[in-house]
Amino acid sequence: MKKKYYTLLIVFLLFITSCRKCSLYECTLYKTITLNFIGYTIPEADTVMIYKYQQDSNYTILADSVMAMATAYNGDTTTYEFIDRRADSLYKLKTEYDIEIVNSFDTKRIRISDIEREHNAVESCHGWLSNNHQLIDCENKLLSYNYSINIGSILTTENIIFVPK
Questions:
Q1: Is residue 98 helix, strand or coil?
Q2: With 0-12 CB in 10 A as exposed, 13-18 as middle and 19+ as buried, what is 163?
Q3: Residue of 139, 69, 74, 149 lying closest to 106 (CA atoms)
Q4: Residue 17 in contact with residue 127, Cβ under 8 Å?
Q5: Any residues with CB less than 8 A from the CB of 21 and at least 6 apart, and which?
Q6: What is the end-to-end Cα distance of the chain in Å, rounded?
Q7: pTM across the whole model
Q8: What's the rounded Cα separation, in Å, for the pair 74 and 37?
């Protein structure tokens, strides 16, 4: 009789712990655009403005602007990260705008438009009694964007734009 109760208890515990509830969560990590000014001294690349325009307005309807702060300076390269705006979720990082980056030293204007990102989600599951979430980190990749510059040339690789002096 005891053996029967132990067997039922084990089966019940296995059943309860195997019950899983799964939910779909939006990925909150994302690739942003990084800008590297190459060959500039710190004073030549320390005043960079980022202008956000309504998409398809031909850069005429200004929505917002911010003075960018360099995130690193290594040798002859000044780096600006998150130039397509900081946000803590993909929802807040709206891509329905065009951006213009202006270096006041040499008046280079870099225009970026048609920004496209993935919109990924991941499934997270946990057992009924145990709360061991199996949340997998995921990232929304930067798929594409268009760019132009008014003076000189730029190089790009995925999410990095290189601006030589």
A1: strand
A2: buried
A3: 149
A4: yes
A5: 125, 126, 128
A6: 86
A7: 0.71
A8: 11
| Burial bucket for residue 82 (CB in 10 Å: 0-12, 13-18, 19+) | middle
Say how far apart CA 76 and CA 161 lie, in whole Å. 15
Please check whether residue 108 is in contact with residue 152, taking contact to mean a CB–CB distance below 8 angstroms. Answer: yes
**Six-digit token pair at 14?**
């296995």
In the block, tokens 């989600």 appear at: 121
> Strands 139-140, 29-30: parallel, antiparallel or unpaired by DSSP?
parallel
Q: For every one of its 165 residues, what pLDDT tens digit does the chain have, with 9 covering 90 and above?
A: 677 777 777 766 666 666 667 778 777 777 788 899 999 988 898 889 989 898 889 999 998 888 888 888 888 899 988 767 655 544 555 567 889 999 999 989 999 998 888 878 877 776 655 455 555 667 778 888 899 999 889 998 888 999 999
* Of 33, 32, 40, residue with least CA distance to 108: 40
122: tokens are 């991941």
**39 token code pair:** 């060959």
